[in-house]
Here is the input.
Amino acid sequence: MASTTGRLTGKTAIVTGGGSGIGAATSELFAKEGARVVVADLHGANASITVERILEEGGTAEPFAADVSDETQVEELVAFAVRTYGGLDVLQNYASNRGVVEHDLFVAEADTEVWARQLGVDLMGCVHTAKHAIPHMLATGGGSITNATSLAAWLSLESRPAYATSKAAVIGLTKTLATEYGKKGVRTNAIAPGHIVSPATEKMYSDEQTQVMLDHVSAPRLGRPDDVALAALFLASPESSFINGQVIVVDGGMSAYAPMVPTFRRLAADS
Ligand SMILES: NC(=O)c1ccc[n+]([C@@H]2O[C@H](COP(=O)([O-])OP(=O)(O)OC[C@H]3O[C@@H](n4cnc5c(N)ncnc54)[C@H](O)[C@@H]3O)[C@@H](O)[C@H]2O)c1
Here is the structure.
């Protein structure tokens, strides 16, 4: 992790999905940078583990158990943050429903209920948090929102249609929020991670598939949650004050090359 500079001193942040992976790394980095962090997760016990790590490092944080697909719970989450720390400046949306992955299959074969469950968390979670956070940000002159999208929004994984669609819709939401509230000082951006090793992806992909991911990264290693957290820190800090409505790709170059490059490399190696 990079050395800290207090870039978020005096700021209050909510991080959804803060009990695991990217959300946990972001919560910890933001606390190191001086933010007061409300770590929100469906699994409150996991949010508490992240908070314990922050407190051990001398940071300020509170856990909050909430299902972001439920607007009432999100309203309570935002009210808790404002009540506890006196305002809200930064919102980070990383909550994602990984429980439907094995059912999110080819469109003509999958149960459509999966769509409601995936979009309910990955898209509507971002809608609910923005709806209830923005009035508090406007009251203090501005704020910064970052939503998790994915390369899957524009590069098909063949299957996982509900996930891909939810992440594509998050980009539309991000650009709309940026336009609606940018003049009033609330910036909204998205981060599109490529393959990041997290508890979720370790379960999702076999060792063989992970090796394929490594082959397709134009970097010496796979991505880590900290790689995304550092981009999130930039987007949440004043250093990015003129960046609004953008998607920052954090993928080690996975989406940078033309699809035929691996085949060309193999042909060159064989000749
Ligand atoms: N890891 C990657 O390779 C990768 C790639 C592209 C995009 N992303 C996106 O980045 C974000 C974080 O990914 P990750 O790998 O750290 O995921 P993760 O599964 O490790 O963490 C997601 C967290 O969201 C929580 N959550 C699930 N449903 C929730 C709900 N209804 N309400 C509140 N919290 C809920 C989970 O309990 C978990 O702690 C996700 O939005 C994911 O889609 C990740």
Remarks:
- The pocket of nicotinamide-adenine-dinucleotide is lined by residues 16-17, 19-23, 41-43, 46, 66-69, 94-98, 121, 148, 150, 193, 195-196, 198-201 (CB under 6 Å).
- The chain has ten helices and seven strands.
